[in-house]
Amino acid sequence: MASSNHTLWENAMPERDFEVISISSDSSDEDTPSFAMSPIVTLVVGDGKVEYTAHRQLLVDKCPFFAKCLTSGTKEANTNVVTLPEDDADTVRHFIDFIYHNHVDFTKERNGFGRMKAYALAEKFGMQVWQNKLMNSLMKFWKMYFVQPAEVSWILDNIHESCPLHRLALDQFSFQAAQRFEGAVESSEREEREYHDGVDALCMKEKFSASRHVREAMRYHNDSKAIQPAEQRCRYHVHPEGETCSRKGRVRKGKDNGSRKRQRTTH
After folding, report:
1. What are the transmembrane regions (predicted)?
2. With contact defined as beta carbons under 8 Å apart, do 46 and 87 qualify?
3. Is-contact 121 65, C-beta < 8 A?
């Protein structure tokens, strides 16, 4: 359980990944970040009212949501307190890490839920750069491990159909169904049973189209040149109108990419 108040320098930066920036009264202008003298804003997050702090100028510069929220004349602008009752404390911590360090780190997580929740928050905050970095992280993860039915279920319940994350999850899930049919998976009997139980539960959801899933899986199975969705970065990135990625970020390979996928559980 997180403490009730998370100061920026103590809690927002894992020591193993970041060089902590200290700001002292005798720092030179060259060494002091441009936002260092900005007022501190307190973010009150979730039902537990977990508090995080961040520099106001950085919030405004990096995040359109806060640029609007902290404009002159608003209650939040006057109090430097923003309440986020519907958001998750751990996800907001990832947001703070990103605005200070341009960094996405989910190396300790065994499933895609943390990344997916962060993506939903990035979309809410209007942060396209963060969305794309999170998308890249999810693509890398889902190339190593199969998309789990529980992850697809969460997507269906929490992400709108037009969202790139929604499209990637269902596309990759169908692509990997073709891989499973071809035997490109290493898993124990227990893992296989849990996976198929999860698929059965997923098929009971009104929002999940089993016929579409089977149709797409068969299309991938019959196309020897099919490109794995998780290799098509630009297709699932968000861009300003008329722009595309500077690099395609994909490699044209066969469905198994020369290696067998590893099964995992979502627990």
Report:
1. none
2. yes
3. no
